[in-house]
Amino acid sequence: MRITWKRTIIAGSIAxxxxxxxxxGDDYFEIGKNLEIFNELYKELNIYYVDETKxxxxxxxGIDAMLESLDPYTQYIAESEMEDYRFQTTGQYGGIGAIIxxxxxxxxxxxxxxxxxxxxxxxxxxxxxxxxxxxSTKGLDTEDVSKMLKxxxxxPVKILVQRNNASPELRSITRExxxxxxxxYKGMVDETGKVGYLKLNSFTQTAGTEVRxxxxxxxxxxxSKVILDLRGNGGGLLREAVNIVNLFTPKGETVVxxxxxxxxxxxxxxxxxxxxxxxxxLVVLTDTGSAxxxxxxxxxxxxxxxxVVMGQRxxxxxxxxxxxxxxxxxxxxxxxxxxYIPSGRCIQKLDYAQHDSTGHAVVRADSSLRGFKTxxxxxxxxxxxILPDVLVEEPEMPKxxxxxxxxDVLFDFANQYYWSHDSIPPxxxxxxxxxxxxxxxxxxxxxxxxxxxxxxxxxxxxEEAAKRERYYDHAKEAFGSLRAExxxxxxxxxxxxxxxxxxxxxSELIGRYYHRTGQAKAMLASDPLVTRAIEVLNxxxxxxxxxxxxxxxx
Length: 554
What we know:
By secondary structure, the protein is an alpha+beta fold.
């Protein structure tokens, strides 16, 4: 076994240096001592373990396990993962511009981005990727194929694809620098032509600029009120969150403060420039997927009484990460501080310093929560994310819909329809007719749609208990009859939840022809949260909510 000890020697040198130079503090002594122990253990394992070891994998496992004991946001980023990290912070990568997914018969194109090299080359949703540059994708997972497709902008890649069991076709594509927009859609959404809407999906380095440009464009179209949609936005760069708040609030406002273990991380972030529009009516949409930077934006605008927040309670991530450069082009993303929005509250929900019996971080106890006030004196609390001013609960997704998604029934039907129909009417005019619905239900009946209901899950538990207590054989026939009664009939379920399923099917079909822009145009008209936001923006309720003089009707 040949082993390179460079990393081990470096670790030992660091340990020795820490032990010598930092012995004044008990913590530093502990760091030095344990680094020496770990260094020796790592060396002995690699020399004497009975089977051949992979030193790199062994070290990565140790690092990941150590960081896992802290919080899920503190992560080691190896050199090989740097491209993914760059994508998270910039929204850019070199590639063909397509989402891929694993299917039973291989790796498929899930969605080619609008205007992407993949789309221009003729690749479409549903195409199977058989080979990349002559290498078969059989047996590979999506991560492997994704790495094969990505590369330096300007470099060629040859992809062998197959559509609907037709003869495979070779596509030659030149990779480009793909930028996923932070604002994928903007437009007017009400009949009066006064309410503009923009969707913000991420907080990369261009988020502030994209939101500014979108709001300016909406204002040029006549918008005097704006809906900012942060649903499903998991966050990103803190500075971009400050920049977005700055678009709607005066210069010099405190947006967020960070406080950490080290004084270097105690910082106050204020708005640095004059606002784009400090008076325009503003509603911010949130849900449980709105986190981190999304919560800074929605929380700061709520605390400053600058916008009405509407939707569901946000995720509750009040932690700040910074990256530290490590050896060999790797990085450590580490949680360095908590952030506090203008009222003084930290919205962090989970306490990662405390764990339950299963090892999971605990939710902060209600007794530990504190009350705060917005600028106008409205009560808010910490430790629970951002509670919207207007709470609009999302209806639970029907179980049959879960089964349709899990079985790719909607996805595959849309592909089949697209392959046999050259065009459909524009978004807003295309609808699911009775004939089209019949075609879909017939297609669904050819597929295995599996899903679990609560009643079936409870029946399984009852059966297990009956077996343990030895009553099952006696009641076997009764259990069988009950199971048959409780098993959902897919045909009946499709009809029972037809409105919900039709809406999803409409989105899937429009996406094939008009991509995400078309989907947004078609779906916003029937979005209940957008409809409620328009009502608030166009009525007296808006000012009353911000002043705290009325309780909104949810």
